[in-house]
Amino acid sequence: MKIRAALVPEAKSPFVIEELELEEPREDEVLVRIVSTGLCHTDLVARMGFLPMPLPAVLGHEGAGVVEKVGSQIKKVKPGDHVATSFTSCGVCRMCKSGKPSWCAEFKRLNFGGRRADGSTTIKKSGKTIYGSFFGQSTHATYALVNERSLVKVPTDIPLEILSPLGCGIQTGAGAVINTLKPCPGSAIAVFGIGSVGLSAIMAAVVVGCTRIIGIDIVEERLKLAGEFGATHVLNSAKVNVVEEIQKLTGGGIEYTLECTGVPKVLRQAVDCLMLGGTCGLIGVAPVGVEVNLDMQTLLDARTVRGVIEGDCNPDIFIPQLLDLYKQGKFPFNRLIKFYSLEQINEAMEDSEKGRTLKPVLKP
Prior knowledge:
Shape: globular
Number of strands: 18
Order of helices and strands: EEEHEEEHHEEEEHHEHEHEHEHEHEHEHE
Structural class: alpha/beta
Distance between the termini: 16 Å
Helix content: 25-40%
Strand content: 25-35%
Number of domains: 2
CATH topology of the largest domain: Quinone Oxidoreductase, Chain A, domain 1
CATH superfamily of the largest domain: Medium-chain alcohol dehydrogenases, catalytic domain
Number of helices: 12
Largest sheet: 7 strands, mixed
């Protein structure tokens, strides 16, 4: 079938809106009419050629839409169901069978390979291969073929337009707190980088009962937002020594930190301000090969640096939990969103990179 999609022709090129050919769903796939799709930092990193995703490609991995067709083996959803899309996984490796699909042994191949699990592709242009299956989906388009393991059925009483960011950025920030760090009520956490991921983490820190929540950024508007979403303190790292300030605020060191920028010097700060036995969660995505310097004595003093993949969550369980919190008024993630048309994707990208928009969401 013919679809309209945002194509990345080659590394570092702008998105181009093209008419492409999408295959019919196979037995384990679902055809979804895309109502909204987030533009995530991972999409932008892939566009730059910093991930192993082959190009030319259709990206997009935070979708929400309506099921149009289902393959013969699909039992999870039926035509007409509302769904959100998230990462995919193999379902058969040790981690998947342990209920930890974000740690799937095949994660990189299945999410960044540009192909189905069997090596075939889903999209063509004039008979030539266009890579898709990004995170098992490729939702920067009017329609997407989605692997069943990338789908989450969602209630129909919440607008699909706002649901797409839950599939990656929002669940990553919230899950890093709720699932990975698991801070106790009354504990303290510092979040470095106040974009949509960082603000989701701050909202989650409020939910779990952290009583000292420190937001760190260099943009004053974002620091103000951090306060609105529940941060008890904010620090502009361009104006103060954040390690010293956090140590003053916490009496020598903080229990938990989250690094959401992917900048090595910021990760160093997030580790250096930990108390003995403290844990730093690393979310920020850096290009492959970027290294960081850490003081070995700092780590020897029982401090931990822990990588976080997709909020260490099972989307089928976690996204409905976040939606319950949203309905209760405890997780207002919709306030992060600014809408764009699919044709405005390059404008949305620029607004995101320059900090003018927290969470761009495209409406194909």
